[in-house]
Amino acid sequence: MAIIPINIKEGTLKLEDYIIGIDLGTTNSLVAIIDRISGKPKAIAGQNSEVIVPSIVYLNPNGEILVGEDAKPFLVDDPHNTIFSVKRLMGKSYSDVVISDSSIGYKLIDDNSESLVKIKSGDKFYTPIELSSFILKDLKKKAERHLGAKISKAVITVPAYFNDAQRQATRDAGKLAGLDVLRIVNEPTAASLAYGIGLNPEEGKTVAVYDLGGGTFDISILKIHQGVFEVLSTHGNTQLGGDDFDNAIIKFWSDTNSEIRNATQLPLLLPKLRLMAEDAKKQLSGAMNFEGVLTTENLAIPLSLSREDFEQLIKPLVDKTIESCKQAMKDADLRCIELDEIIMVGGSTRIEFVQNEVKKFFNKLSINTALNPDEVVALGAAIEADILAGNRRDILLVDVTPLSLGIETLGGLMDVIIPRNSKVPQRAARQYTTSVDGQGTLRICIYQGERDNIVHNRKLGEFLLSGVPGMPAGMPKIEITFMLDADGILKVGAQELRSGVEQHIEVKPQYGLTDKDLEQMLLDSMVNAKDDLNYRSLQEAKTEAQNLNYATLNFINKNKTELSESELEKTKSYIDLLKAAISTENKDQILKAHDELNDFTKPYAERLMDKAIVMALKGKTIEDN
Predict the structure, then answer these.
(1) Which architecture does CATH list for 530-624?
(2) Known catalytic residue at 491
(3) Which of 20, 185, 539, 623 is the most exposed place for a label (fewest CB within 10 A)?
(4) Cβ atoms of 342 and 362 closer than 8 Å
(5) Which of 211, 357, 408, 532 is catalytic?
(6) Which CATH superfamily is domain 242-312 in?
(7) What is the pTM of this model?
């Protein structure tokens, strides 16, 4: 296999070839680089000296998009159009998402399908990929202002527990922001690199990375040997972080202060109360007491909190993180004595009580807190970027595949199974299903490239999976497996898991591609990222709309006697509106019509489902009547 270096041009990097490291966080994000003078990683500060960028996006109804501190005030002023914690939505369908509209303010779209979740703002629909790209674009601009040069390459970190879909969504967000994402790096790996662990190929260590941020917690156990980082186990809670500490303080003050409890303007007080709780949390990491005054137009409420009370309030939450640590150690089959280092990551690890509880559990006299816990992941990403840039000759990088590999799906879209820059050898699998009732044969077309439209990618081969038993659309479970060996030979297998029917093909993914071809394909993917995303979004919207129309027509044909004339007429009118919307080639119009049909049919679909359950419990079905 001919390995194509990530920096195809020879010689040292120009300033424009800077590779940035990005920590795309749930609560906050930041960007870092290697300082060319000191050779050390540093987080980049913005125009107002701020390093941290809140992961918040405000979608102004007039079309303006604000990110970070500029967007923060609208959490209170316009919560329906202010998006936060979007990282929790990456690569997920609505059914995967555990946060509710009431807790986040903005509207998530439930389309009763397994497609990726969408966020509605005004009459427009956004994906988590698009929203994340706005944050990444802001970080990119921040780095460009600091360096006085254009940036096009980046390393982005993700939690160790992120699956393939979440990692691919992060790559796509980077591409949409105008970044060539050279590597997706696990956050605990980045943190270890920032502390210098793993930079010496002769060094071998087993470390625990305790990461407690504003909105999430995870613990990862890593084994590092000869520069290879192996995740032995990971555990955590995506709904636990410093924000929950703030909520515990707010509840305490509300429970112990009648003025707050009885205040009629509590919704207006809440933002100020939350800010004061955050101040108390920070102060009590060093002081023994907090004193403050909560002021409104009519009230001046003195508030206080002792460190002892604070620690009692957060103890149940910290205990949950320790339970995760226990499980991670059990999964890794390790004893605490076998750990060489405990690394602390995330702003909430500044709290002394948290540090003491971690020391107590791992039975260590000291834990590693030398680096800024907010910055450590981004600093590690910058070191990984420096390695990829070829500036650290003593570190050997594993060979990677230079272009993504995937298959064609509905609408002529490329669905990536092995992303570019994946280490080889590599094995990956993904499950699909049919879109038509009784479909017995599937044509599987294999492509290589970085564009969403398969027309712009290179076709490597195709084969038929025949003999699939006739089943309703969506019932077959077809697993496509890609196995890429160290010689660049790709073996593709397809199996219908219910029946065991399978087929295989062998292809050579790099045959006929020169270095120049590869560079051009990568450049095209960057230049056309926005158009590609628009194309993918439109095709996915059309496919979802056509599937909903098909399913709805089938449903009403089977249950005509159970529906009123009004329900039938209105359903058909909504179907006609959706068909008309499909013909407009306008994604937002299609999704709006899709949403309206889905909202109208959901109540009577649920009604018939409830009736079917009752009849089934009586030993009958609706059709028996």
Answers:
(1) Up-down Bundle (1.20)
(2) no
(3) 623
(4) yes
(5) 211
(6) ATPase, substrate binding domain, subdomain 4 (3.90.640.10)
(7) 0.68
